Amino acid sequence: MNKGIAIYPGSFDPTTNGHLDLIERGAKIFEELVVAILRNSEKTPMFSVAARLQMLRTLTAHLKNVRIDTFDGLMVEYAKSLEATCILRGIRAISDYEYELQMALMNRKLEPTLETVFMMPADKYSYVSSRLVREVAQAGGPVKGLVPEVVEQKLREKLDLAYKFHDEMHAIKPAGVGGKERKRKKKA
Length: 188
Ligand code: PNS
Description:
It is a single chain. This protein is an alpha/beta fold. Helix content is 47%, strand content 18%. The protein contains 8 helices and 5 strands, in the order βαβαβαβαβαααα. The chain is globular and about 55 Å long. The site of 4'-phosphopantetheine (PNS) has 9 residues, from strand 1 and helix 4.
């Protein structure tokens, strides 16, 4: 167990099973892990900071050394204010490496005493990202197994209309009365 506080910063819009996997791994090796949601992102989020905070709190309630917080401005300044010693980030595939390396080195330049520690989530989540989850959900596709159930429910509520449309489409097609068959029936 590593003494001291580690920060796991990110957008968490929304939290995926990959994030949760990493939080659980981080909680095992750090004395205290602060999952920190960036408040002032340039991106337009799908979920408000309050909703993301609430979801993460629910999802990590069983982890006694994990705390959820939000931050603004420079991450290293926030880390210093907590007297954190490490930044935790996840690397899923080689494609993450370049961005993560750049960020880690910039953070080191800004605050040399702060170490970035990379961990890998379970390989079954190696293709899961918040962006793809949003994309699939927005198009009415299933996200089961990619995000925790609480998040799936929130996505469902948010995108109720899209899901309704998707469900209706699927209610018609499997009945076998689509395309050619429908035409045949009409002719008969
Ligand atoms: O989940 P994300 O969107 O990949 O997380 C990116 C995040 C929030 C970790 C990063 O954008 C960040 O730390 N932003 C805060 C501003 C900052 O400190 N920028 C310099 C980092 S190189």
